[in-house]
């Protein structure tokens, strides 16, 4: 009895101490405990990555550097994006590219003073910069043997009040009646954002017409100088994130509104001129943001995605169609492929693995080599189905899993938990994913601030033995406006402390969507906003970068009053996590103060290695001038910045140290790097 009473008074005393610690000491200091003796779960190299989709003109008109819209005249309205003048005719049937059958014929306008030609409007303008070089190319032929004709290429500024609209000009002589590729490099004398490309039939011989197909214009300076390349600035921004994984090609575009317009990777490889056009569902998904000229040319296709993954150092993660159309857009169960007729879909998956990894004697490995990459791309992950749900998903995923396991046990399969972060669909799918034995489950959550404020411990109680988590699409959508706010980025940073603390369960996380054109967006917020001339990295980009550049290798226990620092009820909006980085022998502590008030913080470190000391501490701080201020519309200003400073090293005594961080301002995200010596 006495012992019990004694015990309970001890427990009460413990509870009082814990309550004090969870708030602050008497002097108002919040004390966090870091146990350096216990490096825990490994942080996967794939932990922080990128989700890419051709939404918001992310590919055509965005990352893909092609400047000509409808270059193959295959849009359903064949001259969409073009103005034609004089003798212009759209023809088909005897063009050079079977899967893009249309081309145009330019014939004399009938009078010396009249002109024949085409003008392309580009994507929100043909934008060019003074002194930069642009590579024009076209497939062309004369309409009869032995004749030759000239075309004149111009980059123009139609709105100028100056003497001439022409900023760059080149002639190309078409010398054969056989389809041939011609190129010319143009160097504009002015910088113009809303320019146009003009192609004239120059000095026409009345008898001779010229046929044109695949009219293309790229900056010479693309990412790594590839022809058919990517915008250097946008690709560099991806590289600078040091992403661990690169998921492509989406998103809903994997699914298609109808099966015919689902994403089919085989249409996106091989010669770029012969990749067939596809619908882009973001053209019409939101009628209030309608873009009738938004299509997928597949110039940025699976080969380019694999190559980009390699060049930015990320594991490629393709997602393929599982035989379902978009379940949001189509509730007709007959719109999907019957579950017993999936053979060619499963074959697509097997062929994709061969394309990525097969040796060059295989059909698809040979194509990869022919395209310029004989070495395998080392594909390890495959998503099967995007944001699918219900038994219709499970019954289609099952045969994929069976075949992939049998033929490619080395490939990790990613299944879906549906479109919601919780609820019926989610609760149904997770056990099904376990039953099917997928390796990772893709979770999506676009949620408001309050959801994020309660998500600090989301993964603390996940089954450690089940499939791992791929937080494949997430972003905090502000309650004030669905723009990019500094405050929403801060909530994303808060969520990520929980991902990091649970790195044994969460193996990948990718913010979504990645890109948005300021004049062509359908969905926001997004990580990077761009127009034709430049870009703005949002606060969310800064958060992602602070995590990926400070990823570490192993989780370290960091607690407040014995509990995770996860914005718990008595923690007043404080989130924190810690990792060891074995690469440079340092500890990295991330602290997110989401509260409206500053917080005085101290960290008590124990379990330091014998004889270790701590060097000068690097502090990276993400602060916003106005937490609710937003990057909106075409305004590409952001209101936050990352600053770097240092903090003196704390003394180490008996393998412990006390690190006073001082006052961490309200609404701040900080990363501390403590080098061990
Ligand atoms: O990221 C935008 C869309 O959100 C994705 O295409 C889809 O998977 C999700 O619904």
Helical stretch tally: 10
Count all strands and give the number: 38
CA distance, first residue to last residue: 52 Å
Query: What are the segments in which pLDDT stays under 50 over at least 5 consecutive residues?
Result: 1-21
Helix coverage percent: 10-25%
How would you classify the helix and strand content by structural class? alpha+beta
Q: Going across the biggest sheet, name each strand in turn.
A: 2-14-17-18-19-20-21-23
What fraction strand?
25-35%
Shape: globular
State Rg: 29 Å
Small-molecule binders here are: alpha-L-arabinofuranose
Mean pLDDT: 93
Task: Please tell me about this protein's structure.
With 677 residues, this protein is α+β, with helices and mostly antiparallel strands. Helices cover 19% and strands 32% of the residues. An 8-stranded parallel β-barrel has the order 2-14-17-18-19-20-21-23, surrounded by 5 helices. The protein has a 6-stranded mixed β-sheet with strand order 29-28-1-32-37-36. Strands 3, 6, 7, 9, 10 and 12 form a 6-stranded antiparallel β-sheet that branches. Helix 6 links the parallel strand 18 (381-384) and strand 19 (412-416). It is globular, with a radius of gyration of 29 Å. The protein starts with a helix and ends with a strand.
């Amino acid at each position: 009895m006495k012992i019990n009473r004694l015990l309970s008074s001890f427990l009460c005393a413990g509870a009082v101490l814990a309550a004090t610690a969870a708030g602050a000491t008497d002097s108002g200091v919040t004390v966090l405990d870091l146990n350096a003796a216990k490096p825990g779960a490994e942080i996967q190299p794939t932990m922080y990555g990128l989700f890419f989709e051709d939404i918001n003109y992310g590919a055509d008109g965005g990352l893909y550097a092609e400047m000509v819209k409808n270059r193959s005249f295959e849009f359903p309205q064949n001259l969409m994006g073009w103005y034609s003048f004089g003798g212009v005719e759209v023809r088909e049937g005897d063009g050079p590219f079977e899967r893009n059958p249309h081309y145009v014929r330019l014939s004399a306008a009938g009078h010396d003073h009249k002109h024949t030609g085409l003008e392309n409007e580009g994507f929100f303008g043909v934008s060019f910069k003074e002194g930069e070089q642009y590579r024009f190319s076209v497939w062309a032929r004369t309409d009869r043997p032995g004749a030759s004709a000239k075309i004149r290429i111009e980059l123009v500024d139609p709105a100028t009040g100056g003497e001439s609209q022409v900023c760059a000009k080149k002639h190309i002589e078409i010398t054969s009646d056989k389809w041939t590729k011609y190129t010319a490099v143009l160097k504009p004398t002015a910088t113009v954002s809303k320019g146009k490309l003009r192609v004239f039939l120059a000095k026409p011989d009345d008898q001779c017409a010229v046929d044109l197909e695949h009219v293309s214009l790229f900056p010479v300076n693309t990412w790594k100088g590839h022809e058919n390349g990517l915008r250097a600035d946008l690709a560099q921004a991806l590289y600078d994130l040091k992403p661990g994984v690169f998921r492509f090609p989406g998103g809903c575009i994997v699914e298609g509104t109808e099966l015919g317009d689902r994403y089919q990777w085989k249409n996106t490889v091989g010669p770029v001129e012969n990749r067939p056009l596809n619908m882009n569902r973001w053209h019409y998904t939101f009628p209030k943001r309608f873009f009738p000229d938004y299509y997928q040319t597949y110039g940025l296709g699976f080969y380019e995605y694999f190559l980009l993954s390699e060049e930015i150092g990320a594991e490629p993660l393709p997602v393929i169609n599982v035989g379902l159309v978009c379940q949001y857009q189509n509730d007709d169960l007959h719109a999907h492929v019957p579950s017993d007729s999936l053979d060619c879909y499963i074959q697509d998956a097997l062929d994709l693995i061969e394309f990525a990894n097969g040796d060059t004697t295989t059909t698809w490995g040979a194509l990869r080599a022919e395209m310029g990459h004989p070495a395998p791309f080392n594909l390890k992950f495959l998503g099967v189905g995007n944001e699918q749900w219900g038994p219709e998903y499970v019954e289609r995923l099952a045969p994929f899993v069976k075949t992939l396991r049998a033929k490619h046990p080395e490939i990790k399969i990613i299944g879906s938990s549906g479109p919601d972060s919780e609820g019926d669909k989610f609760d149904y799918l997770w056990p099904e994913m376990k039953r099917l034995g997928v390796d990772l489950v893709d979770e999506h959550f676009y949620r408001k601030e309050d959801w994020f404020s309660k998500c600090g411990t989301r993964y603390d109680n996940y089954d450690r033995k089940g499939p791992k988590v791929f937080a494949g699409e997430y972003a905090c959508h502000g309650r004030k406006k669905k723009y990019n706010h500094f405050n929403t980025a801060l909530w994303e940073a808060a969520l990520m402390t929980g991902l990091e603390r649970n790195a044994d369960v969460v193996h990948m996380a990718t913010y979504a969507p990645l890109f948005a054109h300021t004049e062509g967006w359908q969905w926001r917020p997004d990580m990077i906003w761009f127009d034709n001339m430049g870009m703005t990295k949002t606060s969310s980009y800064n958060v992602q970068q602070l995590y990926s550049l400070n990823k570490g290798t192993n989780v370290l226990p960091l607690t407040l009053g014995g509990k995770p620092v996860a914005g718990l009820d008595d923690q007043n909006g404080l989130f924190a996590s810690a990792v060891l980085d074995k690469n440079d022998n340092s500890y990295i502590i991330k602290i997110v103060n989401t509260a409206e008030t500053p917080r005085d913080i101290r960290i008590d470190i124990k379990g330091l290695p014998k004889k270790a000391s701590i060097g000068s501490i690097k502090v990276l701080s993400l602060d916003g001038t106005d937490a609710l201020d937003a990057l909106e519309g075409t305004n590409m200003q952001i209101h936050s910045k990352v600053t770097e400073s240092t903090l003196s090293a704390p003394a180490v005594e008996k393998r412990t140290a006390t690190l006073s961080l001082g006052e961490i301002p309200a609404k701040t995200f900080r990363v501390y790097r403590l080098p061990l010596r």
